[in-house]
């Protein structure tokens, strides 16, 4: 019998915001999407770090306001500057996080000033618009497409990987929020290596999307949209959407 301790997942609150953001910063500091968003600041490393951290703080705060943020704090978390794992979700009731008051309260407005004109283009046009347009296009096939939980970020710091935190986090959300509402789950994987991981929890890759020019040698970022149908079933519009989007399923996928 295994003696491994089951990770404790809990809903995070506003007092946890900065630690949750630092968790995501530590988890995604080598991620193509987040590099793309602040690539124009690579010659200003201190400013780049401030903007990267503020981006995560703004996402965490806005989804604490209008969605759900959960995490595994880990042992002795009160004496550390981050947690082990954090997941930020929008819900069927979230609506937009781009309204004026949310943008101001969360820090997105301050980020828009700090990151400059090029950063504003990358974040508020390339990222926000690309994700929204693709989600609208993909989910338009489903009459129940608004009954949707979207995983915005899920990050685990390197030293906590392999402890079962990701599984515990998904199971917590499915049991307490998603499955009781018979909802669809949606995410964008920014790393191909994560596709088989998400497949373990019922997600199937359905389409790709790009920030920047997909043919550019460096300044681009790929994401693969993955969907879990209600109660963990295969989303009924999967094959039709793949065909319509002319999606080539990555070789790493275990569920073609």
TrEMBL record:
SUPFAM superfamilies: Acyl-CoA N-acyltransferases (Nat) (SSF55729). It comes from the Eukaryota. Coiled coil: none annotated. Gene3D superfamilies: 3.40.630.30. This is DEBR0S3_15324g1_1. It comes from Dekkera bruxellensis.
């Amino acid at each position: 019998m295994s003696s491994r301790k089951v990770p404790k997942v809990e809903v995070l609150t506003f007092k946890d915001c900065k630690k949750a953001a630092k968790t995501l910063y530590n988890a995604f500091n080598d991620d193509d999407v987040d590099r793309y968003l602040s690539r124009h600041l690579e010659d200003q490393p201190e400013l780049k770090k401030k903007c990267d951290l503020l981006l995560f703080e703004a996402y965490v705060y806005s989804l604490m306001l209008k969605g759900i943020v959960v995490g595994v704090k880990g042992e002795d978390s009160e004496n550390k500057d981050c947690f082990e794992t954090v997941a930020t979700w929008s819900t069927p009731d979230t609506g937009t996080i781009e309204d004026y008051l949310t943008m101001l309260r969360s820090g997105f407005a301050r980020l828009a000033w700090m990151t400059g004109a090029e950063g504003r283009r990358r974040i508020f046009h390339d990222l926000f618009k690309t994700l929204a347009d693709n989600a609208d296009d993909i989910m338009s096939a489903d009459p129940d497409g608004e009954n949707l939980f979207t995983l915005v970020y899920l990050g685990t710091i390197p030293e906590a990987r392999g402890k079962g935190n990701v599984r515990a986090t998904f199971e917590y959300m499915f049991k307490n929020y998603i499955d009781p509402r018979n909802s669809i789950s949606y995410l964008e994987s920014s790393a191909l290596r994560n596709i088989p991981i998400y497949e373990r929890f019922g997600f199937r890759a359905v389409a790709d999307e790009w920030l920047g020019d997909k043919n550019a040698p460096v300044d681009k970022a790929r994401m693969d949209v993955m969907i879990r149908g209600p109660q963990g079933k295969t989303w009924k519009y999967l094959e039709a959407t793949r065909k319509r989007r002319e999606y080539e399923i990555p070789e790493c996928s275990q569920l073609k």
